[in-house]
Amino acid sequence: MHENLILKWLEINYSKIHPLQERRIKNFDTEFFDGHIIAAIIQAYIGQNNELTGLKMNCSLESEFVYNAQKIINVLGQIDL
């Protein structure tokens, strides 16, 4: 039950940042791999960030996942998290 509340909260914040890209977030295991949900949550609270707008879409290669993760890590460092 609580997991569903968190997933809904994630969906709401994702849709604030990407209003034209509806995304149903179903679970924690597979939905976070590409970094887009985490990036949207960060932007929902700190505002738009140029570094996060350049994330790779539809990741399939390990290098794309690593690229997105590195961008997120850089932004987290910028905001002292």
Walk me through this protein's architecture.
The longest helix is centred in the C-terminal third of the chain and has 17 residues, at 62-78. The chain has 81 residues and is mostly helical. Helices cover 59% and strands 0% of the residues. The chain has four helices and no strands. It has helices spanning 2-17, 28-31, 36-46, 62-78. It has one domain (2-78).
Q: Specify the helix fraction band.
A: 55-70%
Termini separation comes to 29 Å
Count of spatially separate domains:
1
Mean of all residue-level pLDDT scores: 91
Instruction: Please write the string of helix (H) and strand (E) elements.
Output: HHHH
Q: Can you count the helices?
A: 4
Rg result: 12 Å
Uncertain residue segments? none
Number of strands: 0
Global structural class: mainly alpha
Shape: globular
- How much strand content do the residues show? under 5%
